[in-house]
Amino acid sequence: MKYKIAFFLLFCSQIITAQTGPYVKLRFSLSNSEMKQLLRSGFDPEGMYKVPTAVNLFEAELSQEELRLVKSISKQTEVLISDLGRYYENRALNDVARNNNSIVPPPGFQLGTMGGFLNYTQIVNMLDSMRRRYPNLISAKKSIGNTLEGNAVYVVKISDHPDKDEPSEKQVLYDAMHHAREPQAMMQLMYFMWYIMDRYEKKDPIAQYIINNRELYFIPIVNPDGYLYNASIAPNGGGMWRKNRSTNIDATRGVDLNRNYSYDWGYDDVGSSPLGNSNTFRGPSAFSEPETQNMRNFVNTKKFKSNLSYHTFGGYLIYPFGARENYYTPDSNMFRLYADSLTKDNGYSAGTVFETLNYFANGGSCDWMYGDSSHSKIFSFTPEVGFANDGFWPTPSRIIPLCEENIAPNLFMAKYTVNGLDVITSDTTFSTENSLNINLTYFSAGLENNKKIKSYVDFYNHAALVSNLDTFNSNGLATFSKLPFSFAVNFNAPLLNKTEIPYRIVSIIDGEIQYDSSILIIDKTVGIKQENRKKEISIYPNPSSSIINIEYTLQKNTSIKLYSIEGKLISEHRSNSIDISALVPGIYFVSVVENNKIIALESFQKQ
Ligand SMILES: [Zn+2]
Given a cut of 90, is residue 336 above it in pLDDT? Predict the structure, then answer.
């Protein structure tokens, strides 16, 4: 009997080893030609990174199969972690910082039981609890189809009438977890959903604008089978299975869903493999897998404008095309512009697969979203959340910070949906003693042709200042062009020295209003200075009669300044919450100041 048990255990562990690992973390050297050789074999570089202090030295998280491959090519290898699954599991269990997070997550958000990550059942239950809490903001979950093993792939919609289709509202798609071992991608989407609904309830103007004018669709997990498999081999997190759970013709398991889309499917074997045991096996044909079929069928019934398809890790933002060298979309300038804005806050490096990771991959979802003609052109990006130290299973205490750093891009994508106008204010000069010129540049962010744009400078009823109105047609901006413009502003009354006058450029694009705030600093000894707002902050509730909250992570040297509409400094604060009950009703401004520079500015209304 004893022998039988021992034999059984041995048998089990061999199965697990043969199919899943152990995965190792390897440091290895590769010359440029060795790297090419490695990539030509379909090797998956997601989760591989260059050691910053050394030339041609890399680290990566590898299956046994990949380990053999790298060892056969590299001249110098060193195993840093011999069982990554166990390493991740222990690291999560021993994460002493897990409960000392200073960031308060939005109400409703909770960590899960899989090393801090929600498991599949917890994801599904959380979608239900979102609906229970915000029935007017989020739809009930709907399945876009089942997986091979019969698990539902769910989508929910966040909008002001979530149970109705409103064709005039632009649609944005957020998805995550094509890859089963990348749960941080899903966590940050769940976090963002709670976040935006909470902010809407608290009357945050950006959240209100987005939810009232957009339809945001969320598919938090494209590949539940792979994730459930990871839960079965590593219930506390750390499972390293990447693909779905298809049984391949050679009896190996799994297809890489992010190589199974039809655009450039199987173009070559770089970053995509014809072999079933490879982590980048692209499947026997394009869309051979129910998971990618679900995505295709769903996307083709919608009119998505833009898409963020989340992965981990590396701190990248990748956009099409991915399959070939020097192979860019006709919209690559626009992708670049959007990527600049999407990464402004979290500092991820942006580019095509080749520009960011120096490799290629075919059959990816983003290329299909953008390039396939079965639907309208979708501006699709792949963020790779998290960094080398985070790996595929960040510690519980890193989950919320990684969620936080993706709020800004999620908001940006929803707000602009690749059809916007960016206004860059450049400089301001006195033209006469009684007038000044505000010089700015309009920057088309994918503005469609034949849009009517009205633009003016709003000084929030500042009695001394009046600007002219600018009206133009987007045809002049059609090809990612810049249009310089100068607003003449006349003084009705003398401007006081040392005042800071907030203003905003209001642009109305076919009835849709966009604001870009800035501030003039009147200093008669040096003239007029202008500070551009660089970051977006939001103030909630707004309007408010008692307390306002400023959403911004305060640094040691941050101060929050409160101004009257005339630009008079009222008070200075070092906290995110300000009591405004003593103020007279009206419009006020808040600026965030760091190192004596105004880095953000927003208005609010005191009731
Ligand atoms: Zn991935």
Answer: no
